[in-house]
Every structure is written in C-alpha cells, then in structure tokens.
Amino acid sequence: MIELWVIITGLLVGITCGMAGVFLILRKMSMIADAISHTVLFGIVMAFIITQTLNGFWMLLGAAVAGILTAYLVQLLHSSGIQQDAAIGVVFTTLFAAGVLLITLFASHVHLDVEHILMGEIAFVPWDKWTFFAITMPKAVWILLLVLLINIGFLLLFFKEMKLATFDSLYAASIGVPILFLHYGFMTSISFTTVAAFDSVGAILVVAMLIGPAATANLISKSIKQMFLFSMLYGGAAAIIGYYLAKFWDTSIAGMMATAVGLLFIMTLCAQKFMDYKRKALVSKLEGV
Amino acid sequence: MNALTVENLSVAYDKKTVLENANVTVPSGRLTAIIGPNGAGKSTFLKAILNQLPNKVGKVEILGKLFDPKSLVVGYVPQRNAVDWDFPTNALDIVLMGRYGHTGLFKRPSKQDKLLAKQALESVGMQDFAQRSIGQLSGGQQQRVFLARALAQNANIYFLDEPFAGVDAATEKTIIDILKSLREQGKSIFVVHHDLQTVKEYFDYTILLNKTILASGATEEVFTPEQLQKTYGGKLFMMQDMLGANSLC
Q1: Å from B97 to nearest chain A CA?
Q2: Which of B82, B100, B133 is closest, CB to CB, to A164?
Q3: What integer is the mean pLDDT of A116-139?
C-alpha cells in the first residue's frame, strides 16, 4: 500500500504538471515556471510567518499569492523596458533569497527546511494523511487532486479564450478577450500546481515535470487537445518509469522521475527526426522516378 | 457617418514618441491605404486605434463611438509574423477563432459558427486546406487564413497590417478582390501597405503617415509626388531612381 501511494502521488504529479505545462510551452513561458517554482518558497514562508501553522491550505494560498506577485513583477519590469529574461532573473532570485532568509530568521525551528522544499521527498508522502468524507489518503494526494480539479475547471471555462490569447494576443484583445485576466489566472494555476507538487518532488524538479512532458508532446501533436493528452501521458509515464528506476538503483525517486522526463524527450525527438528523415527520403525518391 | 475619427493621437514607447498629434477623419465605405516609410509608426497607429497601447493620449472614434472590443465591429488582421505558426492546430480552427467573440465566454462554438468558418475559408480559396496544420501552409496561405478569420467575425470595419507582405501574386489578388467586395457591401477597410506601385490601383483613400498624419484624402488627391516626397523624404529619390521617375504617380 505504501508503495502504491508513492506511485499514485507520482502519477498525479506527472498528470497535473503535464496538463499545466501545455499552455506554458505554447505561451513560451517555461522560464516563468522556473521563477515561480522558486518564489513559492517566499509565499510559503510568509504564510507560515503570518499564520504560524504549516496548514496546507494557507501554504497553497501563500504560494498562489507569491506566484501572482512573481508574474506581476516580471510583467511590470518588462513593460518598463527591461528584457523579459532579465526581469525574470532579477525577480525570482530576489524573492527566493528573501524566502531563504526568512526561513533562517523566523522558521528555523520548524520542519520547513530548504532542502526539503527544493528536493521534496516523495517516499515520505504516505505517512502524512488527511481524512475527508471518511476517506483517508495522503495529504499530497488530496492537494494534488484538488489542484488537478482547479486546473481542469480553469481549462473547461476558458479553453478557447486561452487558445486564442496564446496564439494571437493582438487579435484576442481586439475582440475583447480579457488577456490580462487569463494571464494572471493561468499564473495562479501554475503556482497552485507548483506548490501541490512541492511536497513530493520539490521545487526544482517541478520545473522538469511542468516543462518536459509538454515540450515532448509538442514535438508530435497536431492539435492542442492531442498535446494535452500526450503531455499527461508522458508526465504519468515519467513518474512510473522514474519510480521503478529509482527503486532498482536505490536512488532519489524525484531525481529519477526528472531523468525519465529527459529520456522520454530525447527518445521522442530522435524518433521524430528519424521519421522526418525517412519521409524526406521517400519524397525525394518519388520525385526522382 | 465617419468610419474613423482620430484627434490629437500621440503614442510613446519607452518615453520615445512614436506617433505625435495625429489627426484624421475617414468616411465610411472606403478602402484606405496607410502608407509611410519603415518605422513611421504605421502598426503603432493601428494598435493605438484598437486601444492596445498603454502610453496613448488622444481621442479615437470608430463609427462614431469609442472603440469597445466586445462590440465586435472591428475585424483586425495583425501582421502574419506576429504569431507563431508552429502552434499545434489546423487552418479551420484558426478561422473558427473569428467566431469566438460571438460564441461568448464559457460556450463552445456552435454548428452555425463552424459553418460560417468553413464559408470564410472557402471565400479565400482555402477550403481544401481546412484540416492542414497551419505550420505546413505557405506564407500566402497563412495570410488567407488570417483574413478568413476576420471575415468569419463579420465585422463592419477591417484593419489589416501588411496583408501583402511576403505573399504570392495569386494570394495578393484574392485578398484585394475580397477587400473590394467588402467595400461594395458598405464596409470600411484600412490596410497598412508597403508597395507604392499598387496604391492607386487598389485604394480609393490614402493616409500618409510618418510620425504623424501628413495627409489624408481621396487617393488621387493625396498620392502626389509632393506629398510622397514629404512623407518619405530622401528615401523616395532612391525608389524613383530604381523604378524610373514618375512611375509611381
């Protein structure tokens, strides 16, 4: 049962992140995800300092606020004439440093250590349980399910607007699509996703899970719906492959999951290039006849 | 009624003024060229009219009203290279986006929307490419898809940003024929245009722009060597040398 919960958690991380990553890739915002994955630390610490509890709900809220703050500050610096990548770099390192500082100053006595937040520990997930509606499941599974539902809800409500605003924001604005609202709404859902995946795979590896599966899916998808499907499949597959590889070599589960993401990407890229090459060879052969 | 009224419009990027004190009035039912040298602020002018720039002062009225995107009176065709054509979707799906404003939030496009999108695609001669990935279309075909999207929106005023840039001759002909037939239906069309040789042939109204509106009016009155000289400065001499004097006007 313990092992099953770890696998389920990994699967949920893969699926939730895979889903959230699709628009991240299409909007060319991978680096924003990287930034948010660091700055949620600041939000979590602030939530702890204000409430003095390690309650999951407040942490989720703090992380969401920090995520939006990050997106907002980056946007602010960018529109004042600073390059986007520089703006991201400045904002996230500053907020991350502030987070680390606050932990050592105010929260050094609680279980909120930097290593745990950066690396996570999925193997400990099954022991921290919550019971709702007479169902007892690991806390991480509850939070991941909640965030998955929130993300699905956001997509169901705004799918076509997100698609349009992502493909062509100029046209979207000209017909009244609220592009700023969507931008911040999406950033919020990325923040939720990051903090939900936190406990299990840690802040750094969340980025791999957010970007890798979606980037892999983007190689082979012909429509956004396909991309969602493939991205969630890749995310889930990476989680399972990663878990068994880690078990086999007795090493970090989260690390192996991220490695599996990378391996799947490289394999898909090679397969795609090979198919491309074969198709071109066939075309030139046909033209030669 | 006037299609467009612009009063004292100024736009700045990073404290640098791109457009200063532009004033122009264009009556309805015209096919208008917006011309001027590179960097004159033509795209900026369009974006400012469509309320997409923060650092803007002045007054803009479209069909006698302040522009409200939700009214869907404006069909905007941005520059083709403003978007990433590797986006994973097909041509019909892009055209269907032209119906999103009518569909409304939270709803999916109806059968009627899909039918209108198909018709729009057909009117630009792209019906055979409906299911084709947009990344596999040629530049001209992508431009047609963009126009079809604006047509599917069924607007009253169209703003096109360089629709003829990098397209093949057949596409250029298709596009201009459609724009002319829109004008026949009483609609107003504004086109940011680069090719001075075709201005007289395509457009009945012309706006000359370089940092501000230098002249506007019926093409035969405005499109004169003196006005062009004023707009393009020394750059025009080069063009005249290349094309032979007076070949333009």
Answers
A1: 7
A2: B100
A3: 74
- Top residue of B55, B89, B108, B153 to mutate, by most chain A CBs within 10 Å, is B89
Residues of A in contact with B69 (CB under 8 A): 173-177
Digit-coded pLDDT (tens) for A150-179: 999 999 999 999 999 999 999 999 999 999
The ipTM value here is 0.90
Q: Out of A81, A173, A176, whose CB is closest to B14?
A: A81
User: How many domains, in total, are found in chain A?
Assistant: 1
Handedness of CA B17, B22, B28, B29 (dihedral sign): negative
Convert the pLDDT of each residue in B131-177 to its tens digit.
Answer: 999 999 999 999 999 999 999 999 999 999 999 998 999 999 999 99
Lowest mean pLDDT, pick from A85-89, B90-94, B95-99: A85-89
Q: What CA–CA distances, in Å, run from B36 to A264, B175, B208?
A: 51, 21, 6
- Structural domain including A55 reads 2-288
Q: Residue A228 belongs to a domain with what CATH number?
A: 1.10.3470.10
CB contact under 8 A, A157 and B133: no
Percentage with pLDDT > 70 across chain A: 93
Q: Does B53 touch chain A (CB under 8 A)?
A: no
Residues of chain B contacting residue A185, judged by C-beta atoms under 8 Å apart: none
Q: What is the dihedral of CA B85, B91, B92, B96, to 10 degrees?
A: 30
Q: CB-based contact (8 Å) between B229 and chain A? A: no
Query: Can you give the pTM of this predicted structure?
Result: 0.87
B33-85 per-position pLDDT tens digit: 999 988 888 989 999 998 888 778 898 999 988 888 888 899 999 999 999 99
Every domain of chain B and the residues it spans: 1-73+156-249, 82-154
Helices (H), chain B: 42-49, 91-96, 100-103, 111-123, 139-153, 169-184, 199-202, 219-222, 225-232, 235-243
State the smallest CA–CA distance between residue B83 and chain A in angstroms.
6
Amino acid at A45: V
Q: How far is A164 from chain B (nearest CA, A)?
A: 7
B47 touches chain A (CB under 8 A): yes
Tokens of residue B190, six digits: 């504004």
Specify whether domain B1-73+156-249 bears CATH 3.10.129.10. no
pLDDT tens column, B174-233: 999 999 999 999 999 999 998 888 999 999 999 999 989 998 999 988 898 888 888 888
Residue A174 and residue B50: Cβ atoms within 8 Å?
yes
Report whether A42 contacts A66 (CB < 8 A): yes
Size of interface A-B (CB pairs under 8 A): 78
Strand B74-77 versus strand B65-66 pairing type: unpaired
* Cβ neighbours of A161 in B, within 8 Å: 100, 105
